[in-house]
């Protein structure tokens, strides 16, 4: 769970706001995941006409990636966190670049590194008088990544080489000149502009409010930049800077002397390749990933972060600082990665999923997730085998290291005890999705506990029965934050055909309880009507033909007919084996009455349905029978 970003829909705009101004809105892995998840969701959402990304505070839109965690894990020899972060961040950069709807970014103050990856690949990039952009990676031993090499390779003349090697800052005019921004709108007009974008869903107001940008200093120096940075090797560029007169060349030379030789040499090689190949952003990102994948063990990256950001001694001990780089160094850093190559196929992130409760519903749901390529680890109290699912020895083991943990358990009490076991085992930022049908209080309590532990939480009970679970056609009714829903939505899309975001924590269970109260009442009404029809001598098929096309029709009549041999196949045709067991219906009706009690709602039909199912399950022969077995029950009974 991250409080560092505010995601919402306002009017026609999908809105993403960085809310971490005290850290210059530095981009964390959680923020990347949240942005990617919601953008994929908005791509198919007709309500969202465009996306507007902005940031709180005056100092920065986003001053870069949050490299502290990359450093912390990297120095212990654990490179997997950084590689995963970069891989997913680059996929997000590509997603923004090729987004099917306009993406407007509003970039005040600093926009650097990771911030460029978010703000500078969209369709409408807005700057103002305070905007300062840079790709400063060479100063920490990295290369300009997040698609930075793509932008730099398309900048006029040798401006890309100049910016990539020196990490020089661009003002608003420079950013537009170099191809990092499109429009200059004075900051005091931004609130109006965003309001117009939200209200209209149209990008036309940007051009209407845009003004002429300040002159680009880069344009004034273009001839000099082209001359100084024309060399095809770092040595050649250095030599021409050393031989040149004037302040501009001297400042550039100082920067080049400060930065990592390996980073700068690789940057030059990458820009040469990308420019000559007229590459796409995906090719650029794939090339960047070759460097960053190797960067922790084999480049100046960890030393650069140490010197600039951790110890702050500003005295990095670069590799090859005293002599020319061996030819092989650049070739090695940019060599293809084989099976670790960055790919974009499908682009939906394959997740590590823990699945707890693999019964009639959970089993086929987990199997569908595994079939879609996700790595699913499951646990159930009973010994079960599910195709594609690796079984763990405990719920906590299944939850450890998972991106998402899904529970599908019998009731709220069991959910609470499983939650107490798995929440401490889950990684911070992971998402807890409970699909069981439980009481609203348990759903809210578990969500609260999860959020307090730094997790995202969604309650997402389902409708559609075991048939829907197997076919992947369930309906999910979800409660939780927009961010949590966005993470879970791609999984709902695999397991179901519809997912409705009903509101905050507990709203999914509230919707489920109301739906199932209707279902229980309707099933009883349908069954007693068939029993009455029998006694009136009406043929069951004729009864179905009339009611299923008249005002008495319902899901219980039309799709789940309780009379055997009539209507579509249903548990009635299988000796009333569940399907949906009567005791589960009784559980749901009790939940509805418990909720009605605490909300002071008058639900007489729901109360009567609960009473009838309780009698059926507890003192007749309903236990273990499908809930439509109410029909043979009514058949045997008489009035009074
Ligand atoms: P089920 O009894 O078949 O499955 C529940 C599973 O949870 C069982 O395999 C059980 O062994 C396991 N379990 C119990 N306690 C556990 C624990 N502490 N740790 C790990 N596993 C544990 O029930 P189901 O039909 O799959 O229903 C699951 C949930 O889905 C229920 O809340 C139900 O109300 C809801 N639901 C069911 C249907 C349906 O048609 N069956 C439809 C919609 C919703």
UniProtKB/TrEMBL annotation:
Enzyme class: oxidoreductase
Domain Enoyl-CoA hydratase/isomerase residues, every copy: 14-321
Domain 3-hydroxyisobutyrate dehydrogenase-like NAD-binding: start-end pairs: 506-631
A Pfam family per the record: ECH_2
Reactions catalysed, as given in the entry: 3-hydroxy-2-methylpropanoate + NAD(+) = 2-methyl-3-oxopropanoate + NADH + H(+); a (3S)-3-hydroxyacyl-CoA + NAD(+) = a 3-oxoacyl-CoA + NADH + H(+)
PROSITE patterns per record: 3_HYDROXYISOBUT_DH
GO biological process, one term: L-valine catabolic process
EC number of the protein: 1.1.1.31
Species per Swiss-Prot/TrEMBL record: Pseudodonghicola xiamenensis
Entry's family note: Belongs to the HIBADH-related family.
Name the record gives this protein: 3-hydroxyisobutyrate dehydrogenase
The keyword Membrane is assigned to this record: no
Protein origin, superkingdom: Bacteria
Gene Ontology terms, MF aspect: (3S)-3-hydroxyacyl-CoA dehydrogenase (NAD+) activity; 3-hydroxyisobutyrate dehydrogenase activity; NAD binding; NADP binding
Record keyword Phosphoprotein present: no
NCBIfam families to which the protein is assigned, alphabetical: HIBADH (TIGR01692), PRK05617.1 (NF004127)
Keywords, sorted A to Z: Branched-chain amino acid catabolism, NAD, Oxidoreductase
UniProt cross-references to InterPro entries, sorted A to Z: 3-OH-isobutyrate_DH-rel_CS, 6-PGluconate_DH-like_C_sf, 6PGD_dom2, 6PGDH_NADP-bd, ClpP/crotonase-like_dom_sf, ECH_dom, HIBADH, HIBADH-like_NADP-bd
Taxonomic placement: Bacteria, Pseudomonadati, Pseudomonadota, Alphaproteobacteria, Rhodobacterales
Pathways per UniProt: Amino-acid degradation; L-valine degradation
CDD domains assigned: crotonase-like (cd06558)
Domain 6-phosphogluconate dehydrogenase NADP-binding: 352-503
């Amino acid at each position: 769970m991250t409080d560092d970003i505010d995601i919402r829909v306002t009017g026609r705009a999908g809105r993403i706001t960085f809310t971490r101004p005290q850290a210059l809105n530095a981009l964390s892995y959680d923020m990347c995941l949240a942005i990617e998840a919601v953008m994929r969701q908005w791509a198919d959402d007709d309500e969202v006409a465009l996306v507007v990304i902005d940031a709180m505070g005056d100092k920065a839109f986003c001053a870069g990636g949050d490299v502290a965690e990359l450093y912390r894990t990297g120095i212990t020899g654990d490179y997997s966190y950084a590689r995963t972060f970069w891989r997913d961040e680059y996929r997000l950069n590509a997603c923004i670049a090729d987004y099917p709807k306009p993406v407007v970014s509003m970039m005040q103050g600093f926009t650097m590194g990771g911030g460029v990856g978010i703000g500078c690949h969209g369709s409408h990039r807005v700057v103002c008088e305070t905007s300062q952009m840079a790709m400063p990676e060479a100063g920490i031993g990295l290369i300009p990544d997040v698609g930075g090499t793509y932008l730099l390779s398309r900048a006029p003349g040798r401006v890309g080489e100049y910016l990539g090697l020196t990490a020089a800052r661009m003002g608003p005019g420079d950013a537009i000149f170099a191809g990092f921004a499109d429009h200059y709108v004075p900051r005091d007009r931004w609130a109006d502009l965003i309001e117009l974008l939200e209200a209209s869903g149209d990008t036309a107001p940007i051009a209407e409010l845009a003004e002429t940008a300040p002159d680009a200093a880069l344009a004034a120096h273009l001839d000099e930049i082209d001359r100084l940075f024309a060399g095809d090797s770092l040595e050649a560029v250095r030599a021409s800077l050393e031989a040149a007169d004037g302040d501009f060349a001297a400042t550039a030379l100082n920067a080049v002397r400060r930065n990592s030789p390996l980073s700068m040499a690789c940057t030059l090689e990458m820009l040469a390749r990308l420019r000559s190949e007229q590459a796409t952003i995906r090719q650029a990102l794939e090339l960047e990933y070759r460097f960053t994948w190797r960067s922790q063990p084999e480049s100046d990256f960890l030393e650069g972060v140490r010197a600039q950001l951790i110890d702050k001694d500003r005295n990095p001990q670069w590799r090859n600082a005293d002599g020319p780089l061996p030819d092989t160094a650049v070739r090695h850093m940019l060599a293809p990665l084989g099976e670790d190559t960055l790919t974009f196929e499908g682009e939906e992130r394959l997740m590590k999923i823990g699945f707890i409760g693999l019964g009639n519903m959970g089993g086929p749901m987990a199997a569908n997730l595994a079939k879609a390529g996700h790595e699913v680890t499951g646990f159930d109290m009973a010994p079960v085998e599910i195709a594609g699912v690796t079984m763990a020895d405990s719920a906590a083991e299944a939850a450890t290291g998972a991106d998402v943990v899904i529970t599908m358990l019998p009731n709220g009490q069991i959910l609470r005890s499983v939650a107490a076991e798995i929440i401490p085992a889950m990684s911070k930022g992971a998402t807890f999705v409970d699909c069981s049908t439980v009481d609203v209080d348990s759903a809210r309590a578990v969500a609260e506990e999860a959020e307090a532990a730094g997790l995202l939480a969604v309650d997402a009970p389902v409708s559609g029965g075991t048939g829907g679970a197997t076919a992947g056609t369930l309906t999910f009714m979800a409660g939780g934050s927009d961010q949590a829903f966005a993470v879970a939505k791609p999984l709902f899309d695999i397991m179901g055909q519809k997912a409705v975001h009903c509101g905050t924590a507990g709203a999914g269970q509230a919707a489920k309880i109301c739906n199932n109260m209707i279902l229980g009442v309707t099933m009883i009404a349908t069954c007693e009507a068939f029993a009455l029809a029998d006694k009136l001598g009406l043929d069951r098929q004729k009864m179905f033909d009339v009611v299923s096309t008249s005002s008495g029709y319902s899901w219980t009549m039309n799709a789940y007919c309780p009379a055997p041999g009539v209507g579509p196949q249903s548990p009635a045709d299988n000796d009333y084996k569940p399907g949906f067991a009567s005791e589960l219906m009784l559980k749901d009706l009790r939940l509805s009455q418990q909720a009605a009690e605490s909300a002071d709602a008058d639900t007489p039909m729901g109360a009567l349905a609960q009473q009838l199912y309780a009698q059926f399950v507890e003192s007749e022969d309903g236990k273990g029978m499908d809930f439509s077995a109410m029909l043979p029950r009514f058949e045997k009974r008489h009035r009074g």
